[in-house]
TrEMBL record:
Keywords: Chaperone. This is Prefoldin subunit 5. The keyword Chaperone applies. GO terms for biological process: protein folding; RNA polymerase I assembly; RNA polymerase II core complex assembly; RNA polymerase III assembly. It comes from the Eukaryota. The keyword Electron transport does not apply. The lineage of its organism: Eukaryota, Fungi, Dikarya, Ascomycota, Pezizomycotina. InterPro entries: PFD_alpha_archaea (IPR011599), Prefoldin (IPR009053), Prefoldin_subunit_alpha (IPR004127). The gene is pfd5. PANTHER family: PREFOLDIN SUBUNIT 5. Belongs to the prefoldin subunit alpha family. It comes from Thermochaetoides thermophila. One of its GO terms (cellular component) is prefoldin complex. Gene3D superfamilies: 1.10.287.370. One of its GO terms (molecular function) is unfolded protein binding. Coiled coil: none annotated.
Amino acid sequence: MASRSGQDKQGQGEAVDLASLSVQQLSTVKKQLDGEVEHLSTSYAQLVAAQGKFKECLRIVKDRASTLEKDKTVLVPLTNSLYVKGKLSDPEHVLVDVGTGFYVEKDTTSAAEFYEGKIKELATNIQGLEGIVQAKTANLRVVEEVLRQKVLASNAAGTGAKQSS
């Protein structure tokens, strides 16, 4: 029999026999799983995007730090499309965004280590979330299959009742 993991009061999973649910209940479960899969997929995409930004920061810190010279004119990004000219005062130190609008001055080696740590942490989170998305998607497929079978059975029963009348 097909079963689905639910949540009881302690947050532990409990199996629910999908065959015992009505079509309406299965539709509700399907909608809930659809929402969860969509939300988790969005979160997955956001984590991958964040990891990409950290990789780009790491690449810049590693590649550019050794080639920059003091008092060199550079373009400083204020937004994605607005840059201003500035002079590099210290090529050995960079400002690192550590989150929630806070910046910390670090030497390029420490900055690279910070970004490498963030990339590894996100990779772990992405991998875990990927497994959850796959499990939820598998649950969704099972619910859809049971729902399809129930609808077909009810249609067949309705057709059989009409023919015998």
